[in-house]
Amino acid sequence: MSDTHAESVRYVRDTMLPEQPPPATEVGVLGWMRESLFSTWLNAILTVLSVLFIYYVLSGILPWVFQSVWYAGSLDECRQIMKETWGETHGHACWAVIRDRWLQLLYGFYPPYPAYPDANVGAPPAGWWLPAYFRPNLAFVLLIVALAPVLFDTVSRKLLVVTAAYPFLMPWLMWGGSLWVPVGVALGFVILFAVVKYGSVRLGSLAAIITGVAAMLVWWGVLLGPFAGVMDQILPIALPTVESREFGGFMLALLIGIVAIGLSLPIGIVLALGRRSDLLIIKSLCVGFIELIRGVPLITLLFVASVLLNYFMPPGTDFDIIMRVMIMVTVFASAYMAEVIRGGLAALPKGQYEGADSLGLDYWQAQRLVIMPQALKISIPGIVSTFIGVFKDTTLVSIIGLLDPIGLSQGIRANQEWNGIYWELFAFIALLFFIFCFGMSRYSMYLERKLQRENR
Amino acid sequence: MTTNTDPPKESFRLSMLIYDTRYRSTTIQVVALIGFMLLAAWLINNTIQNLAALGKPIEFGFFLEPSSYDINQHILEYDSRDTHLRASFIGLLNTLIVAILGCATATVVGVLIGVLRLSKNWLVAKIMAVYVEMFRNVPVLLWIVLAMAILIESLPRPSAFRGDDPDATLKLFDTVALTNRGVYIPEPLLTNSLGSVHLFGQSSLRMDVSLDFLAFILVLVLSIFAARKVSARADAIQNATGERPTTWYINLGIVLLPLVILLWALGFHLGTPELKGFNFAGGIHMRNSLIALWLALSLYTAAFVAEIVRAGILAISHGQTEAAAALGLRPNRIMQLVVLPQALRVIVPPLISQYLNLTKNSSLAIAVGYMDITGTLGGITMNQTGRELECVLLLMLVYLSISLVISSIMNWYNNRVKLVER
Questions:
Q1: Is residue B191 scored above 90 in pLDDT?
Q2: What b/e readout covers A351-389, taking b as 16+ CB neighbours within 10 angstroms?
Q3: Which of these, A276, A273, A262, lies nearest to A329 by C-alpha position?
Q4: Between B372 and B418, where is the model more confident?
Q5: Which one of A227, A277, B198, B305 counts the least CB within 10 Å of its CB?
Q6: In the prediction, which pLDDT does A386 show?
């Protein structure tokens, strides 16, 4: 066979041809453009239309953003300057409104120098003062420090001390008052921890937890007041108090968002476990709660916070509106979080539960060591998008009259000087929210990639 | 060593309630139930005491009193002499209107953007990604308020349409007027109307149902039914002979012709808006609040729908498409018979929950003054009567029922398309 073949073939190549570079139209920028912009006629038309669209949008936005007025006292003044400079008022932004009101949009009516609520921002009162808005700024910086070890594992573990202290430190910084109250509250948790740790050998774990909780409640209910009083006598450390109604701006949105996000994750986990529990009563209580909260819009819950919550409390109690709003937003976020985590729990193969059981782990050990780490990992995208949703939903508080950025923007637009302005204000607010929400969603993608165990 | 006898029968001790797993679950449940009941009793007791102190016992009689406020956008007749119940009903209808309009628009825009985001064209895909990120990461309330501000501040006043050389003109062949008081679109008018029937007497639910509309729906349903018969017959012929008769023009004729004849018989024509006095008359007046809410909600939700559609299409493995191509199916048949049925199973559940979100977000209408159920029952009615407890609870109940209806539809769908596993 091979012989006949060899005879019939006149020429056989006995060396390989050298490798040739691909044609210039297939690689590099040209190849990429052919591939992704002009592969077919339809594609080419779409590309041309897209370029025209981008040109149209940018030719509107860029002059508007950059050929703008920064120094003016009112919209009329702005328009006058525009007329003098460019001959028209259309297509130029008046950023003077942001220059005028950016501190208000960020901090609301929070006093810059607490002892003088009406102190002028530009000129601090006589004497020595901390920089303006020192307390909210410090709280924000500490937030970043507290979150760093949780978010990135390259950061030193020692910073976790800040994370543990932050829930007590932040309210003290923001609202002020005696330092000894948050310290006392934190001591309650220390008591709980100590009793559980050292009592569980002698009393058994359940009895130790019950004793610990009882001791903590007694400490908070009875001893906290005298403790703070005595400590104030010995070593008075206090910040001037700031009323809740002075909170506002983006700071308020962040505050409500952080509290709701921070609390909704643990509550959501408990609710999700309750919903998947075998105990009928616990399960139906959790299902009822979750479905009730998820079935109604947040705005109705905020109505509950603003008009009903005081009815539900013992006569005479009147706790402030921001606290009430925080409670309701947390409740709302927890129900959504519970459903996200339940999804993660349901997605876990049954073998994991059985494997944990066969190792002899009890319910809580199995949850802590086997189930939760995996279930939470699966539900990261859902958890983060719930966080983003909650953070965006904090703007709804403007409807019940709190002065978040949108509430303030309505005030500014109603103001005589800035009546008729809207693009600049909303662009600024949208940018603030965009930075935070987009950052969160990028972080969740990073975390997903990092925790990916398969295909490594 | 091992004995195989039953363990000795223990007598019951109190500590077994906690330490014996047989009893522990019961103990925990009983404790939880008692705790819950105590909490509920405490809350209810507080509420009763507080309300008694204010002299406001819980009762719903105020619903039958005249509302004495106006609702600017209503599809059923309503005036301020009507009861609070009627006002709430009108508000509920307004909620449903904006929800249905919004869901429809969000689906169309979202599917378009989701598909375009998967486009091979890099530029188109990037533009769509920018759209999605822009709308997803900014609060919906801001979009609503911004849309309202744009409509009010940038559209011309009705007076700008006046005169020989007006500053503003009607759009779309002189039929649509975009003004800062709202959008006026042509209304369908009939010269030989069949009239309407009045339902529910003088109660708060009373409504006039147009017979023309019913006739239209009836003819439409009948002709679609006939068209499906034709398709079924074509299927039968295809199964028998392998040749499929072309049916699309027959179907189109069957659906369209009767409707056209009906409309002609009823004397259908469009009534365009005209400038009269200080404002436009004729046509359908859509208030800016409705337009702003509709636009903002649907564009915002469209970003989420786009992501759902994209994820759904990506979830279908490439092998499915290749296998279908190997069977010799054409690209559009592959989409129709292989990809879409599987992708829809992934897409529909989250899509419906987006519809639910849109419906709940429509309660933000109160920010722009659109009178939906939150604006009537939870807004003016609550403020006028001072019955916060009753109003807010009823409001929650209404939304809860809407949610439950939508989620039961979702469950029904999920069960229907669920993969039957071994």
A1: no
A2: eeeeebeeeebeeeebbeebbbebbbebbbebbbbbbbb
A3: A262
A4: B372
A5: B198
A6: 93
Residue A456 confidence (pLDDT)? 43
Note the pTM of the prediction, 2 decimals. 0.88
Examine the domain organization and report whether A255 and A234 are in the same domain: no
For chain B, say whether A315 makes contact (Cβ under 8 Å): yes
Closest residue by Cα to residue B106 from B307, B302, B295: B302
**Does residue A6 lie in a domain region?**
no
Q: Which is more confident, A7 or A25?
A: A25
B284-286/B182-185 β-pairing = antiparallel
Question: Nearest residue of A to residue B53 by CA position?
Answer: A315
Establish if A229 belongs to a structural domain.
yes
Query: Of A253, A223, A172, which is closest to residue A434 (Cα–Cα)?
Result: A253
Q: Is A99 within the bounds of a domain?
A: no
More confident residue, B309 or B317: B309
Q: At residue A32, what is the residue type? A: W
**Rounded CA separation A148/A162 (Å):** 10
What's the mean per-residue pLDDT of chain A?
A: 87
Our CA-based measurement puts residue A295 at a distance from the nearest CA of chain B, in whole angstroms, of 5
Number of domains in chain A: 3
Q: Please tell me whether residues A399 and A253 are part of one structural domain.
A: yes
Q: Does A316 touch chain B (CB under 8 A)?
A: no
- For the segment B331-381, what is each residue's pLDDT rounded down to a tens digit? 888 888 888 888 888 888 889 889 999 999 999 999 998 999 999 998 898
A376-390 confidence digits (pLDDT tens) = 988 988 999 999 999
Report pLDDT digits (tens) over B57-94.
Answer: 888 888 888 888 888 888 888 888 888 888 999 999 99
A281 assigned to some structural domain = yes
Domain boundary among A41, A66, A91: A66
A198 at interface of B, judged by CB pairs closer than 8 A: no
Both A375 and A253 in a single domain?
Answer: yes
The pLDDT value recorded for residue B114 is 92
Residues A289, A266 within the same domain: yes
A266 shares a domain with A206: no
Query: Which residue, among A113, A329, A141, A399, has the nearest Cα to A240 in the 3D structure?
Result: A113
* Domain-terminating residue out of A66, A90, A120: A66
Q: Are residues A207 and A350 in the same domain?
A: no
Residue A392 contacts B where some CB pair is shorter than 8 Å: yes
| Chain A residues within an 8 Å CB radius of B122 | 36-37
Q: Answer whether residue B385 shows pLDDT above 50.
A: yes
Residues A232 and A252 in one domain: no
Rounded to a whole number of angstroms, the distance from the CA of B147 to the nearest CA of chain A is 10
Q: CATH number of the domain that A410 lies in? A: 1.10.3720.10
Look up the domain containing A43 and give its range.
27-66
